[in-house]
């Protein structure tokens, strides 16, 4: 079952990417990191350009729409990661499963069975459980109160998850007619141009030496190309199941929670693991 290991690898890499993003943002601004990140990622896929050609005109527009969705999603997610505990972001990021399911029902007219409904209830419950801190009702002191996160940052995190779910929906529609090389090449090119235009339009200061010397950005670019290619390979393998893949991709959540504890000294790890366990249980049931 090579495809299972490839998807598990993607999930772990996804969690590690969140850590690398937070480290990269310690040295440069959000837009600087995003521009160089996408530009380098694009350069890594340029050798595959021969497989990216041959699209009908309308697909360039569709991919540009997907790119704009990701353009906004990444701005929101990077700003959220910079301002909130990485472990909290890792749990909130699981909400994209909830958004993806709802979009599937609304847009693709998919139906929910009993297990899918129960799964959604558990996912929603796990996310709501995050609101309550350990010891809130018992009268005991919490492990050590974390600094509260601005509601605007929480909204950014959820907005990123919703937009990523929209992007996933577009991927599902587009991949019926185009190949992975075409999608990856063009959306990274469009993204690079969008972040460049954003830099110019906003007059954002760019610290070129600092930006290119930030090795976390280089690592981030390599990780997204490698992880995405592993996922593409898994999707193309005979016997791969989308339901199991959905679950395995969420393994990155555990990585971010543990990293928050051991790398960034974040608190209330047990509570966040409990919330993640409830959400993951919902995903298991919902994809059964």
Structure description:
This protein is mainly alpha-helical. The protein is built from 13 helices and no strands. Helix 3 runs antiparallel to helix 7. The two termini are 18 Å apart.
Attribute tags:
288 residues; mainly alpha
Topology:
Blueprint: H1 2-24, H2 30-45, H3 57-83, H4 86-92, H5 95-107, H6 114-129, H7 151-174, H8 180-202, H9 208-212, H10 215-236, H11 242-248, H12 252-262, H13 269-286
Helix pairs in contact: 1-10, 1-12, 2-8, 2-10, 3-7, 3-8, 4-12, 5-6, 5-7, 6-13, 12-13
Compact overview of the structure:
The protein is an all-alpha fold. It has 13 helices and no strands.
Largest sheet: none
Indicate the proportion of strand residues. under 5%
DSSP E strands, number = 0
Q: How many angstroms does the end-to-end distance come to?
A: 18 Å
């Amino acid at each position: 079952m090579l495809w299972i290991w490839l998807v598990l690898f993607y999930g772990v890499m996804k969690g590690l990417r969140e850590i690398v993003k937070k480290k990269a943002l310690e040295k440069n601004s959000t837009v600087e990191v995003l521009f160089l990140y996408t530009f380098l990622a694009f350069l890594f896929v340029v050798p595959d350009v021969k497989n990216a050609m041959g699209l009908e005109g309308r697909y360039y527009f569709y991919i540009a729409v997907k790119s704009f969705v990701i353009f906004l999603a990444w701005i929101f997610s990077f700003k959220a990661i910079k301002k909130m505990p990485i472990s909290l972001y890792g749990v909130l990021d699981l909400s994209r499963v909830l958004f993806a399911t709802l979009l599937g029902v609304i847009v693709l007219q998919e139906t929910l069975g009993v297990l899918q409904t129960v799964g959604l209830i558990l996912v929603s419950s796990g996310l709501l459980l995050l609101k309550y801190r350990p010891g809130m009702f018992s009268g005991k002191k919490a492990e050590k109160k974390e600094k509260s996160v601005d509601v605007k940052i929480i909204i950014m995190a959820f907005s990123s998850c919703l937009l990523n779910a929209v992007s996933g929906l577009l991927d599902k529609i587009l991949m019926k007619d185009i190949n992975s090389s075409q999608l990856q090449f063009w959306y990274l090119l469009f993204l690079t141009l969008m972040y460049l235009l954003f830099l110019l339009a906003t007059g954002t200061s760019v610290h070129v030496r600092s930006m290119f010397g930030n090795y976390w950005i280089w690592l981030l670019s390599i990780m997204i190309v490698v992880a995405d290619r592993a996922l593409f390979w898994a999707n193309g393998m005979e016997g791969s199941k989308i339901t199991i893949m959905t679950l395995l991709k969420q393994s990155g959540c555990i990585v971010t929670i543990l990293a928050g504890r051991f790398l960034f000294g974040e608190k209330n790890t047990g509570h966040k693991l409990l919330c993640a366990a409830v959400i993951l249980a919902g995903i298991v049931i919902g994809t059964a």
